[in-house]
Amino acid sequence: MTTTQWTTEQLDIFLNNKTLTMKPFNPDMTTFEEESPVWEVVVDGNVYSRGWNGDQTKWFMAATAQNAGEICVGDHDFAAQFETIDHSAELDAKITAAYKAKYDGQNSLPKMISAGPTYATLHVLPR
């Protein structure tokens, strides 16, 4: 795991926006696989996002293959790197709790906190 982290100001941007646009690179590392709006949460100063269709989510597959791309949050664009997480009951529970708090009342919440998306959780870092 890398030690590069988001600044406090950048984390505030994530906290104050409901979605980010995930743009993982294609194998050429210059064009994007796709641009997908996704939910994101901040836990212990780290940004996480989950793939709706688990590890078969198209952007998740590209992000884990290339480990790099860009993200857009609000009106901010960032170069990003993506890492799969080392799952633990504690970390998964914290991320799920953050999803419940941020997206309470959303129809898609039960799916996003189910086993498939939980398995497909990425740590989103600055690059």
What does this structure look like?
It is built from 5 helices and 6 strands; from the N terminus they run αβββαββαααβ. The chain is globular and about 35 Å long. By secondary structure, the chain is of the alpha+beta class. Strands 1-2-3-6-5-4 form a 6-stranded antiparallel barrel.
Rounded radius of gyration (Å): 13 Å
Q: Going across the biggest sheet, name each strand in turn.
A: 1-2-3-6-5-4
> What's the main sheet like?
6 strands, antiparallel, barrel
Number of strands: 6
* Shape by Cα distribution: globular
The portion of residues forming beta strands comes to 25-35%
- Helix/strand-derived class? alpha+beta
Ordered list of secondary-structure elements with their pairings:
Layout: H1 8-15, E1 19-24, E2 36-43, E3 46-50, H2 58-66, E4 68-73, E5 76-84, H3 89-102, H4 109-112, H5 115-119, E6 121-126
Antiparallel strand pairs: 1-2, 1-4, 2-3, 3-6, 4-5, 5-6
Summary keywords:
127 residues; alpha+beta; six-stranded antiparallel beta barrel; 5 helices; globular
Structure, briefly:
The protein is an alpha+beta fold.
